[in-house]
Amino acid sequence: MNATRKPGSKGQRDALRHDMTATGCATADIAVEMRTRFRMRAREAWRHAHGWTLQEAADRITQAGSHRPGEAVAADASLVGKWEKWPAPSSRRPSLSVLFAMADAYGCRVTELLDLEDRKSLPDTDLRVLSGGVDVAAEPRPPVNSLLVRVPAPPASDLVRLAADESATWAQWAEATNVGDLAVEQLMSETRALASDYLTSDPVALFPRARALRDRVFALLEGHQYPRQSADLYVSAGYVCGLLAWMSSDLGQLQDADTQGRTAWLCAELSQHNDVRAWVLSTRSKVAFWDGKLRDAIGFALRGAAYRTTGSVAVFLACQEADAWSELGSKSEALAALARAEEARNAAVGADEVGGIFACEPARQENYAAGVHLRVGHASVAARAADNALTLLSAQRVRAYGTEAQIRISKAAAHLISGEAEGAIEALSPVLALPPDQRVSPVTHRLRELASSVSRLHATGTAASGLCAAIEDFCMDSAARHVALSPGAASA
Q1: Is the pLDDT of residue 338 over 50?
Q2: CATH code for 181-360?
């Protein structure tokens, strides 16, 4: 059908309308030319013949319908687009009231808004009304804002049948869906794979996959599906946008990460799914933390903890809260949050829905504990927590390089506090060997903090100076720096 063809560009349509108007052509002539030249449907051609946008047409159609007693039409841009596409998929059949209002707005006959495909798809009752002389739009019409000719009502029997056909048509639309349950399940499976792969893969390489998956979910949400399927799609969208926020933050693009986080939160709210809400808020807490907005980071973590959830997200949120408190220098609040993380671990029920980056394994919890204890001055406790974290990590099936790097940085910092520069270098050796694409922003940030500690502690000697030089070289050749030098590389 012509509905599947792409119309000419706006510039081409405007030029055609200007040229034809300049030569004295009527609007009806322009509409015919639009249809034949750009392969448009009749209703779309009439709109473009006037040069109106979908919203401008909607406003005029609504105004025209308001002048017909009992035939008011409430149009918006989306509905006008669906009426134009009918009877193609994802469209809406315009009722007779809509067609008469369109004809009034466009200054044409109703029959000029219909082609063969339309007539073949119209209910018999509508065709009888149109062929029975009811289409007074064929007569000369006064302007819309003046007194209009009233359309005689169809016979009672036809009116009853017409109402039934309209209800049946709506029911067919409501029953239709553009996505099946298996497709929804597949999207969640791909979301889980991405969240798991991110633990071991380079963020720049994985980013396009996450972006493509998000686009697929968004495209489905723009269609029509059952409410429960829409909710499931919003769950996937929330997790994928959360993952894009996480990646953007790891690549040092904090403003973009914040944008992704806001969209993820909208999706989480629309899904009404508490686990998604909590994980999105944890992601937003992470972004705020690395952006230096520590109070916001605490606020997001506390909001997330207020939801009744399953899996390990409550553990993670408490760890993030502790991290931010310790950065602020609030020792008692930080240690209290760590204690709540342990309580949440003991009280956790169920498994994480997605896992991967959206899971807080025991090693990850110990990593946070090590960092918090370092900041509050418990170097020996931090060292034990780091050793425990590495032991737990070695037992995991998947070893997250980002988590392992941060654990080793905490261990190195504990060595430096004890005056053991050689021990720090040994702990950092696997970190400094990471390839550039895995040198994410949190790792480089914490390494720079470590280098500052060397100066603060007045560490001297070849080992200390060599460590600072190695850290500087590492940070200068990082994923975040490469993205920063290539504007737009990680935008989505």
Answers
A1: yes
A2: 1.25.40.10
